[in-house]
């Protein structure tokens, strides 16, 4: 199979399944697996080939199911990560407070980007290592669980990621797409919103590569019955004002209380709007945005976060009083020597979002056979 890949040939879906199953079971020698990973990342990927790999990774583990929720909306969000990106901590409780079930599976820090799990664990006692059974019960009760990938979900992804790390194939877009989508599809979703970061602080800083990643993941989701929308958001500067696990958690709490920085709230609302529309809670952007704003203004979003924290073993008082969070033993203030200025427009996130109308395609269009996207400031 490796020789066939070397020579530009293809593997059948059955061969991909066998390959992933053997490697997950530890029956594939490491030297051959490294060579295979490199060959797979360098060879041209067709939609059929990538679909086969994604399906094989998905089939390597268990999936969440929510029979008690019936046909109710189950929507998650995934971000490619960036400096100061604490959106998930705000978005999960906020959207759940609006009536959408959010089984949010997140990751840890990767390179220079912070991890949602690390930030959540800054809350004293907070558990992110829920089992699938615990996560399912919590989503059905509270409408949201904020968890990490368990050993039950796509175990092939864990092993293949370690392999990509030692074969310099972490940034392979087909392999990134299969990794992300195999985990998200295992959550039993009926909708997914992607936040693809663009700019100098992003994992993939080039806009062309970000768009390619977005299109690839949209196609994988749509073809598996999970409507998928991608937004391109700015990461050429930090998001919000805080960087660091405890500080970002505190800023997320302030955002849920309506006191967050404008750029953080703008990205959160943009993603939340798509989640509410996908879930059928609202039918247009204006009404969806208003519902999200009302959930924050009324205190429902902050209350939902309190419930989630308490359910996952954390101290819910941290929402009312963020000083409950760990505090630095030493603090030093460095004051700017002169005043600076920044125009409002330069701070606003640049978002390319799904368009539900026949809008003219822009240079940064995201598209699939079912969707098109146009740029908006």
Question: Which keywords apply here?
Answer:
7 strands, 377 residues, mainly alpha
List the helices and strands and how they pair.
Layout: H1 2-6, H2 13-24, H3 30-42, H4 47-59, E1 75-79, H5 87-97, E2 102-106, H6 116-120, H7 132-142, E3 144-148, H8 155-166, H9 173-185, E4 191-198, H10 207-223, E5 228-234, H11 245-256, H12 262-278, H13 285-297, H14 300-311, H15 317-320, H16 344-347, E6 351-355, E7 372-376
Parallel strand pairs: 1-4, 2-3, 4-5
Antiparallel strand pairs: 6-7
Helix pairs in contact: 2-4, 2-8, 3-8, 4-9, 5-11, 5-12, 5-14, 9-10, 12-13
Summarize the entry for a quick read.
By secondary structure, the chain is mainly alpha-helical. It has helices spanning 2-6, 13-24, 30-42, 47-59, 87-97, 116-120, 132-142, 155-166, 173-185, 207-223, 245-256, 262-278, 285-297, 300-311, 317-320, 344-347, and strands at residues 75-79, 102-106, 144-148, 191-198, 228-234, 351-355, 372-376.
């Amino acid at each position: 199979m490796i020789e066939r890949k070397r020579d530009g040939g293809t593997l059948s879906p059955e061969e991909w399944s066998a390959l992933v199953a053997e490697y997950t079971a530890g029956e594939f020698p490491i030297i051959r697996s490294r060579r295979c990973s490199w060959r797979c990342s360098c060879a041209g990927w067709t939609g059929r080939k990538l679909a086969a790999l994604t399906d094989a990774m998905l089939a390597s583990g268990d999936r969440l199911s929510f029979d008690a929720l019936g046909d109710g909306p189950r929507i998650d969000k995934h971000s490619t990560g960036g400096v100061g990106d604490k959106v998930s901590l705000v978005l999960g409780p906020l959207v759940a407070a609006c009536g959408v079930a959010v089984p949010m599976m997140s990751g840890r820090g990767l390179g220079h980007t912070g991890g949602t799990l690390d930030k959540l664990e800054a809350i004293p006692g907070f558990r992110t290592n829920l089992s699938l059974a615990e996560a399912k019960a919590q989503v059905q009760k509270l409408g949201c669980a904020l968890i990490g990938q368990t050993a039950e979900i796509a175990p092939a992804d864990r092993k293949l990621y370690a392999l990509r790390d030692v074969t310099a194939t972490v940034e392979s877009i087909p392999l990134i797409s299969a990794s992300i989508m195999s985990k998200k599809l295992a959550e039993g979703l009926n909708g997914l919103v992607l936040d693809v970061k663009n700019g100098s602080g992003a994992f993939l800083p080039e806009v062309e590569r970000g768009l390619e990643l977005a299109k690839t993941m949209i196609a994988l989701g749509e073809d598996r019955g999970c409507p998928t929308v991608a937004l391109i958001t700015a990461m050429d500067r930090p998001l919000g004002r805080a960087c660091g696990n405890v500080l970002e958690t505190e800023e997320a709490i302030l955002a849920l209380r309506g006191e967050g920085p404008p750029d953080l709230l703008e990205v959160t609302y943009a993603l939340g709007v798509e989640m509410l529309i996908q879930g059928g809670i609202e039918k247009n952007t204006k009404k969806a945005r208003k519902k999200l704003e009302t959930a924050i203004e009324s205190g429902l979003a902050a209350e939902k976060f309190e419930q989630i924290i308490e359910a996952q073993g954390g101290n819910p008082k941290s929402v009312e009083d963020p000083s409950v969070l760990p505090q630095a033993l030493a603090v030093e203030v460095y004051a700017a020597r002169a005043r600076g200025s920044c125009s409002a427009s330069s701070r606003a996130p640049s978002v390319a979002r799904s368009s539900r109308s026949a809008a003219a395609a822009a240079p940064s269009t995201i598209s699939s056979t079912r969707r098109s996207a146009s740029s908006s400031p």
